[in-house]
Design a protein that fits this description.
Elements (H helix, E strand, L loop, with lengths): L4 E3 L1 H14 L4 H16 L10 H10 L9 E6 L2 E9 L1 H19 L1 E9 L6 H9 L3 E9 L18 E6 L7 E6 L5 H10 L8 E2 L5 E2 L3 H4 L16 E2 L4 H17 L13 E9 L10 H13 L15 H13 L1 E3 L1 H13 L11
Parallel strand pairs: 3-4
Antiparallel strand pairs: 1-12, 2-3, 4-11, 5-6, 5-11, 6-7, 8-9, 8-10
The structure holds nicotinamide-adenine-dinucleotide (NAD).
Length: about 350
């Protein structure tokens, strides 16, 4: 397989920004979408980054996602808010939730925000990071309505979404605890990356229609696996949940909290594709009457990091460390871009009359 090329982070961000602007997004919104996507790649999660651009462009064409953000606040009372994202871009709505949460915590010490009908929110940990940078602790439960692609524990047919969870706890030194994962064995984007670039998946990433483990993207994409924008519901199999009944239980909890209780809806019914998110945000210092919490967080993180490793040279990390390390490497060497994805972006560029970066050549 050909090694990926590297492209400067600002250069690819500006290119995507120009593509989304040309596709009809307001300049400021295009910038937020491009930055969030490129940051997903830069933090080691390409499954939620640049690889999504062709699918997002299809969404704009089909009218599945509005290029111009529209937000309706359905309910607002003290520390409670319910927002309808009206199928706008999730990357723009995520910033809106973060801004609202900061305001609400300042006035009420707590924010419980339900978001329904959001376009794809991308890497959920990105929202927890922005809040942690502002000194706020946050929990986010997410569902993907209209995306029944994961089998519940013990099942061999899709019933739920990849339903991610993110938890952010700020640390005074900026090395925040950011736990952020799909409750599926792998995020669907990782199967998309495997289908496009040939990366290897865990042997039990999926379950086929006979109940056997599978690592083949065709299990969920079926015949659409060869298309530019494969459909994860076209195959007969499903993605498995992580951690057997425990991960499956968390996935079901996300469907209930972020789906049933925000009005985004669960995967019990056929629905248009959207993310639902329930976010709980607070400032721990508001109830830290003895002023001990920051020190306890620092002591705890240090005790985890200094745990003797099982394998020499492979230090114990806290969630958030791998993304920070990856970002530092990307800042120095640029973002990886496979030839397949680069070619797809060039095609989109051509169709929108946006010149690709000169460094990529013809
Ligand atoms: P993953 O399996 O890569 O796990 C990532 C988490 O594990 C991070 O918190 C990371 O810091 C931590 N981690 C990784 N290696 C570690 C180590 N050695 N020690 C300690 N912690 C470690 O994540 P995933 O399930 O593949 O999800 C990828 C992304 O997909 C996430 O950002 C998620 O939010 C996103 N996602 C989004 C949607 C959506 O609809 N918007 C759906 C599913 C997933």
């Amino acid at each position: 397989m050909e090694p990926d090329m590297r492209i400067n982070q600002d250069e690819i961000t500006n290119w995507l920004d120009a593509l989304f602007t040309a596709a009809g997004c307001p300049k400021e919104e295009a910038k937020l979408i491009a930055s969030h996507l490129v940051d997903a790649d830069a933090s080691g999660h390409p499954s939620h980054g640049i690889v999504r651009v062709p699918r997002y462009m299809e969404y704009i064409k089909e009218g599945t996602v509005r290029p111009v953000c529209a937000i309706e606040t359905l309910m607002s009372a003290g520390s409670l808010r319910l927002i309808d994202g009206q199928y706008s871009f999730g990357q723009v709505l995520g910033h809106h939730v973060v801004a609202q949460a900061k305001e609400m915590v300042a006035s009420h010490s707590l924010a419980l925000i339900g978001l329904r009908n959001a376009g794809h929110l991308g890497r959920i940990g990105g929202w927890a990071e922005l809040l942690a940078d502002a000194g706020l602790t946050s929990l986010h439960f997410v569902t993907v309505a209209g995306s029944r692609i994961v089998a519940p524990f013990g099942g061999r047919e899709a019933r739920i979404s990849t339903a991610p969870i993110a938890i952010g706890v700020p640390s005074a030194d900026g090395q925040h605890f950011i736990l952020d994962f799909a409750t599926s064995r792998v995020a669907e984007g990782k199967i998309l990356v495997s289908q496009k670039t040939g990366t290897k998946l865990p042997f039990d990433a999926m379950v086929d229609s006979h109940g056997e483990d599978s690592d083949q993207p065709v299990t969920i994409y079926g015949e659409s696996a060869t298309s530019n924008v494969p459909n994860p519901r076209a195959g007969e199999g499903a993605i498995q949940t992580f951690g057997q009944h425990k991960g499956s239980g968390l996935g079901l909890a996300c469907e209930l909290l972020a789906g049933a209780l925000t009005g985004a809806g669960t995967n019990a019914h056929e629905r248009p594709f959207c993310n639902g998110m329930l976010s709980l945000v607070f400032k721990a210092e508001d109830f830290d009457t003895e002023n001990t919490m920051q020190q306890e967080v620092a002591d705890f993180i240090a005790s985890i990091r200094t745990c003797p490793p099982r394998q020499d040279g492979q230090n114990v990390l806290i969630p958030g460390d791998p993304e920070r390390a990856r970002r530092a490497e990307v800042a120095a060497n640029g973002v990886s871009l496979s030839q397949t994805i680069c070619d797809q972006l060039k095609q989109i560029s051509l169709s929108l009359s946006v010149p690709p970066p000169a460094s990529l050549g013809e």
